[in-house]
Design a protein that fits this description.
6-stranded parallel beta sheet, Alpha-Beta Plaits, 428 residues, Dihydrodipicolinate Reductase, domain 2, homodimer, elongated, 14 helices, 36% helix, alpha/beta
Chain lengths: 428, 428
């Protein structure tokens, strides 16, 4: 058996702990699969968790020092954050000609191209299977398993916290704020949940998938992002009635005007592959010109699934399996030509809260007609003259710019008691 | 850019044609992803289809001659059949130190270990991503993407023809024979459909998945196989009423007495990942100790999806990515210690056609009690004294041997007008 692969781990939190456990518990199996043993030779964290099987492994309170001073083949970066220590140690390790494995989607979203260029110049691997959709081997699938395809679109549920909140809202009929508070109490959502619920985390991941799927440079700045704060229990109920589920999706799609790259709540058919994925599960759908539709589903976070992905990268490195970081050489990635959201064509759900009085419908219909937006269906339960009622419309095949103009006009109608709510419908 | 990867293709049917088209249409993209061009340097088939872009490519009516006489790096074997020409050319190519890529599940099911040993001795790749679940990159996922896991169970819908027939039976209420005839007329089922509908094809694929998942030698002879000929429209209706769908599944699972390896119709919950996969789609669920449950879904057959899988193997070879054929070195695969079906514990659906007369239920109940089998529920619509009625029971957590003894006794009851039907229930 060949030489040991020497691993230095920076970060011993949930994912770091899981990775240490996996490497220890499955040491024999991994050596068999990789063709050589994998060994942790150093670790760094603010504190060394005493319960981890790290006896005899040199410990550093300063990750930068570990990366500079130790002898290792691979740095596993599990500190997190797009810059700071994480970026410093990754850059330093690549600079020393060492491989890097990370779960840090924020860092890749912001510095992916530069790091890939650095890694490829150094002839080492920069692996980040764990950065997207946890245990689902979607990075490998796009880069290698579907390498024969031109990808037409890729989309998915990329944030488990949002999917958990939306699923719970549907199951319990409760409102967003209440369910979020409960998720925080249960540890399913962070104390500062904005990265998750405002769609930033999903957008980080989507920007990585876009690069792999389309051979374009990671371009987080061009992701259109909307979160789930405005999704109400009422919308979820209406969605159900219309045959839809509300999911926060990341979508990247080739269109005539460029590649759409967007994260926002969507209504998807209840019986679609993606509509049925509930709770903390993630799912990614990739459509290729030869393979057709493929669906990948699994746990998107947590110690075990993320460690599984980290170790898959380590086994590839140990076995000497090399590949361009984003599927094609980093120097050959093209700039992302992003389609403007104004040019998006699609279907829409619109919910209005209006005072039920004569003439309101005529005003709404006029606004739509003037912008040449055709209504597909309208839903209103009962009538309550003089009181507030909810009116739900679905609109099909409309350009986003026209839709927005119509919505602005509708929002200005006197009888409107709150701003119109708009959710895009995707007919997967 | 490095040297061209020289490809010889044996077999120019549906999959061969798709592979030629993919390699031609995406030549530039593939060269970028693989780091070198991929070129077809020879092809063999009974006839050379004139519509394929093979102008100038040497053609052989005798695949054995092509394999012996040409200069190539990889043989792509798409002839089919577990032995004969297919096995001859694969063995000959490996013997010359060339890589082999194949979609031939029958050959791997019967000769997988020997071929893997030969390939690994020669230091070449024996790739068969296309042999299981068409375009779904499940072989790569098991071998590499989930390499950090001990797999606890793997199961899936592995035969698109059966899934199409069962889906159509459910949607139309028609009987098996009629739907099969229609599927044959439409080209979804072979003129001799027994390989598909008797579960042989699914069993070939399952034996390959078992090897990859558990590190055991491929052992097709130890697959317990039942097909779908006996599934009736009535069973599908009752399944629906009980909250289940009937699917032909391949299941491999670790148990205390060994590894279960079985192919048979199953009732699965309507809302399970696998219960919702309809038509010609395949799906595979792999459960690992760290990653948890992962689901992979896509088209299981056809020119495009299968070509996608063939080319994924070719890109790996071109890029120099090596791996043990079945995830661990072939010489280290352990013999499969298979669990006896008699030791299987699970749930069962039983349908009896009985003459509705006093005392019948008592006889059935006695047979169950004597074998210590506990009924969970019983379903009968209306009563029709003196006439034949269907009685459906579900049984939970019973040993297969006891279940079979009880069924034999029940089958011998006078009032029974046809043999009892038994379908296993899997509570995924």
């Amino acid at each position: 058996m060949s030489d040991v692969l020497k691993i230095a781990i920076a970060g011993l939190g949930t994912v770091g702990g899981g990775t240490v456990r996996l490497l220890t518990e499955h040491a024999e199996l991994l050596a068999l699969r990789a063709g050589r043993p994998l060994a942790i030779v150093a670790c760094a964290a603010l504190d060394k968790p005493p319960e981890l099987p790290l006896v005899g492994v040199p410990f550093f309170a300063d990750a930068r020092r570990m990366v500079a001073d130790c002898d290792y083949d691979v740095l596993v970066e599990l500190i997190g954050g797009s810059g700071g220590v994480a970026l410093d140690v990754v850059t330093a390790a690549l600079g020393r000609g060492c491989h890097v494995v990370t779960a840090n989607k924020a860092m890749i979203a912001h510095h992916g191209l530069a790091l890939a260029l650095q890694a490829e110049r150094a002839g080492v691997t920069f692996g980040f299977e764990a950065a997207v959709a946890g245990g689902i081997p979607i990075i490998k699938a796009l880069r290698e398993g579907l390498a024969g395809n031109r990808i037409q679109q890729i989309y998915g549920i990329l944030n488990g916290t949002c999917n958990y909140i939306l699923t719970t809202m549907r199951e319990t009929g409760r409102e967003f704020a209440e369910v979020l508070a409960e998720a925080q109490a249960l540890g399913y959502a962070e104390a500062d949940p904005s990265f998750d619920i405002d769609g930033i985390d999903a957008a980080h991941k989507l920007s990585i998938l876009t690069s792999l799927a389309f051979g374009t440079a990671v371009d987080f700045g061009q992701v259109h992002i909307e979160g789930i704060r405005h999704v109400s229990a009422l919308d979820i109920r209406f969605a159900e009635e219309l045959g839809y589920r509300i999911k926060l999706l990341g979508i990247a799609r080739r269109t005539e005007t460029g590649i759409e790259q967007r994260v926002h709540p969507c209504m998807v058919p209840i019986n679609s592959s993606i509509g049925r994925v509930d709770g903390v599960f993630n799912a990614v759908v990739a459509e290729g010109d030869f393979v057709g539709r493929t669906v990948f589903e699994g746990r998107g976070a947590g110690a075990g699934p993320t460690a599984s992905a980290v170790v898959a990268d380590l086994v590839d490195i140990a076995a000497g399996r090399r590949r361009p970081t984003f599927g094609v050489p980093a120097g050959r990635l093209e700039p992302l030509r992003c389609a403007a959201m104004d040019d998006h064509r699609g279907a829409y759900y619109i919910r209005l809260m209006v005072v039920d009085r004569p003439g309101v419908f005529a005003e709404i219909a006029t606004a739509l007609r003037d912008e040449q937006v055709s209504m597909e269906s309208i839903l209103q339960h009962g009538r309550a003259p003089g009181e507030t009622v909810s009116v739900v419309m679905t609109i099909h095949d409309t350009r986003e710019a026209a839709m927005n103009r119509a919505i602005r006009r509708i929002g200005a109608i006197d009888a409107m008691v709150e701003p119109p709510r708009l959710i895009r419908i995707e007919a997967f």
